[in-house]
Each structure stands twice: as structure tokens, then as C-alpha cells.
Amino acid sequence: MHKLVVLYPPPVDPDHFRDYYVNNHLPLIASWPGLLAWRYSFDVAALEGEAPYFAIFEGDFADAAAMAAARATEHGQRVAADAANYATGGAVVLHYPVRDTID
């Protein structure tokens, strides 16, 4: 499995972010070809101190090639471009292979 993680720093308008994300962005995510599972949260907390992020998204793909193919589709490009409509604080996008057991 390959995971895509998006970390969102605090936006200028948190209420707009939440509303737009839930009502517009997540419906795009839900129909993204190749995405096996996804989850998100606005309740990001640090174990100590203040969390540097407002929200998080996690998406699961079969492998890195499946993720790259999904991101390259017209739909994937719409998903990426849509971030400008709500993520006024920017976004940190990470991806990595997931290991299910300790080697």
C-alpha cells in the first residue's frame, strides 16, 4: 500500500476551510479513481505544545504507481487545483510506502 498525506497549516478563515472542504473538496476526493480508502480530521493535536496543522488528509493507493497515475488523471489534477479554493495556509503533501510488519 502507498499513502498520500496532506497536512494543512492554519488557514486565514477556518470556517470557510471546513465548509468548502466538506461540501466541495471531499466529494471530489470520493470519486477519485484509484483511491482505495481515505480519511480526514480537523481535530489535529500535538502531544506537547500547539499543533502546527489545522487539518490532515490520508489517502490509500495500491502502490506508488497507482498514486502517480491517479494524480496524473484529469480528475486528479482537479483535486490538486481545488486546494487553492480553501487552503489559504498552504499544504504539505507527503507520500510513502506503508510497511505492515516490522522487518
Automatic annotation (TrEMBL):
GO molecular function term, any single one: oxidoreductase activity
Domain EthD positions: 10-88
InterPro entries, A to Z: Dimeric_a/b-barrel, EthD_dom
Superkingdom of this protein's organism: Bacteria
Record protein name field: EthD domain-containing protein
Protein species of origin: Streptomyces hundungensis
Lineage of the species this protein comes from: Bacteria, Bacillati, Actinomycetota, Actinomycetes, Kitasatosporales
